[in-house]
Amino acid sequence: MLLLATVRRRSHRCRWAFALLLGGLVSCSLPICLLRYFLLLGPQQQLARNGGPFDDLDDEAVAAAAMAAEDYSQLLARIAADATAPRAGSAAAASSIASTSSGARPAAAALQYAGAYMAERYPGNVSYCSWQYDLPENLNYQEHQLLGSPGATRPSATQYSANGTGRQYLVLPNAVKAQGVDDLPELTLCSHATADQVYDVVELARRWEGPISLAVFVPSTDAALAVDFLERACRCEPAMIRVSVHLIFPRNRPAKLSSSAVTTPFNQLIANDSASNAADPTEQSLSSCSIGEIQASASSANGTERRRSGLAYPINVARNVARHFAPTERVLVSDVELLPSQALASRFLDMLRYRVPKRTVAFVLPVFEVELGVRPPKNKAELLAALRSDAAVYFHRFLCPHCQRFPGLMRWILRPDPGKVRPLIITKREYPHHRWEPIFIGTKYDPLYTEEMSWEGRQDKMTQMFEMCLQNYRLIILDGAFLVHQPGIKRKSAEDATAGTAVVDEQQQAFQRENSKIYQRVTHRLLKRYPAANRRCRP
C-alpha cells in the first residue's frame, strides 16, 4: 500500500511537471491546450463524470482543484457571445431573465423588500405557525426554559446546559415550532436575522422544501417588532408551517413585548387597519402582506433597539443556535438574504442516495448576487442567462473577491444546467484559498462558529473554516445548486471615504480590530489543539 501511494504521488508530480514544461516552451495551440487540460484536470474531470463515491477521492483530485488564475471578465464575454445560440432547454430561461434585465424590468422598489410577491395578498384569520410561550399576544416563560448558547457550553457539541449561568446571551428555543417535520426532506436550512430582517424568512420558506430553523436576535423591545413581523408572515405565507424560530437576547436586555416598543410603523399600521375594519367590516385590510413601507422604517438608523443602542450583532451565536435546534442531522447554515435554488434539498438528498459521506466532508454551494430589480433565478439556466446579461456576478465580487470566489468557478459557469445536483470538483480550504468563506451543507457535528465574533467586525466564519482545514475536511463543490443574494449587487459606496462617515468608520474599525484579536487568539489555540495538522492550512 505504501509503495502504491508513493508511485501515485510521483506520477502525479510528473504529470504536473510535464504540463508546466509544455506551457513554458510551446504556445497554446489547440492540441497543446487540450493536452494540458487533460494532464492538469483529468482526475477532477473524472469526479464530475462519475460523481464519486465521495470517500474514495484521492489527493490527485484535491490537487487538481487548485486551479490556475482565471479571467472572470473574459469568461463572461465568451458566454455572452455564445448567447445567440443557447442550448436546448435554456431558451425559456434566457427569455425570462431578459425580460427582467431589460426595459421590461419590474420597478426596483417592488423587489427591494421581502414578500414583494404577496403585494396582492392580505393577512388571513388563521396563523400557519405554532406559537409557544403565550405568543404572539404575550411573552411568558420560566427561568429554567432559558438556555445558554452552544458555544458557551462547549467543549462537547452535544452539551447544552440549562439556564446559561454566567453567559452573555440567553436563548428561548422554539418560540415558533415547525409542524410536520417528519414528512419533509431531511435537510434543515439554518438561518439567522435581526428584528428588522426577520420578514425575509417568507422568501426562504417559499423556496425551501425542508424544515427551517431561524434564530432571531431580539434585545429588549426588538422582540415586539420581530413578533409583529413573524405574525404577519404566519398569516400570509402557508410555508411558514415548516419554520421554527428561536429568540436570542443579551442577559442584561431580556426580550419583552411592549405597546410602546414600536411607536411607528407597525402599531400605527395595525391601528389604521383596525379603524378601517371597524368602520366597514366588509372592506379589505389597508395593508397587504408585502408591507415594504414597514420594512423600510424598521431598517432605518433608529428603527430597532439594537441600532439605537449601538449593540453588536452576535451573528455566530445565532448561527450556532439555529444549527443546534435543527430537527435533522444534515444542515445548511446560511444567511437570511441568500435564497436557495429550486428543489435544492430534495435534489441534494437524491445525489446522496446510496452514498454515506464521512463527517469530514462538506458540500459547497456557489453563491451569486443579482442586480436590484432582477428576479432571483431559480435554476442554473436562469442564472447563466443573468450572468450573460451582466445582471449577476458571484457574491461579493466587488466587496471581497476572495471571500466567495470558489475554486472551479470558470468550470461551473461553462457547464450547462444539469437539471440535478451533482459534484463538480473536490478541494480543500488550503493556500491559496485560505481566505475563502464558503457556505456549505454539513452536519450538526461540524466545528462551531466562534461566538465572540460580531457581524460588524466581518470575516466571522474564518475561524470555523480554519478548524475544518486542520481537521482535514474535504469540500465538494456542487453543480446544479446555488444560493443567490437579494436585493441588489453589493458595491463599495463612494460615500465610504467622505468625512460624513468618519464616525461610522471609526466604530466599524473598532469592531474589526476586536474580531481580529479574537481571530488571532482562536487560531493560536487551534494550532495547539492540532499540532500535527496540515501545514497548508494558513490562519
Q: Note the overall shape.
A: globular
Strand runs, count: 15
Which radius of gyration do the C-alpha atoms yield?
Answer: 25 Å
Which blocks of ≥5 consecutive residues have pLDDT under 50? Answer: 1-28, 31-53, 55-70, 83-110, 155-166, 281-285, 497-503
Count up the helices: 18
Instruction: Give a short account of the largest sheet.
Output: 11 strands, mixed
Percentage of β-strand residues: 5-15%
Helical proportion, percent range: 25-40%
Structural class: alpha/beta
Quick check: average pLDDT?
Answer: 78
Kindly, what is the distance between the CA atoms of the first and last residues, rounded to a whole number of angstroms? 33 Å
Any overview of this molecule?
The protein has 539 residues and is an alpha/beta fold. Helices cover 37% and strands 14% of the residues. It has helices at residues 2-25, 30-50, 59-64, 72-81, 91-101, 108-112, 201-207, 222-234, 266-279, 292-298, 305-309, 315-324, 344-352, 380-388, 401-404, 409-414, 462-470, 502-529; strands at 130-131, 147-148, 169-177, 188-194, 212-217, 243-250, 330-333, 338-340, 361-365, 367-370, 392-394, 422-427, 439-443, 474-479, 483-485. Strands 1, 2, 3, 4, 5, 6, 7, 9, 12, 13 and 14 form an eleven-stranded mixed β-sheet that branches. Helix 1 runs antiparallel to helix 2, helix 5 packs across helix 14 (380-388) and helix 17 runs parallel beside helix 18 (502-529). The longest helix has 28 residues, at 502-529. The two termini are 33 Å apart.
Topology:
Blueprint: H1 2-25, H2 30-50, H3 59-64, H4 72-81, H5 91-101, H6 108-112, E1 130-131, E2 147-148, E3 169-177, E4 188-194, H7 201-207, E5 212-217, H8 222-234, E6 243-250, H9 266-279, H10 292-298, H11 305-309, H12 315-324, E7 330-333, E8 338-340, H13 344-352, E9 361-365, E10 367-370, H14 380-388, E11 392-394, H15 401-404, H16 409-414, E12 422-427, E13 439-443, H17 462-470, E14 474-479, E15 483-485, H18 502-529
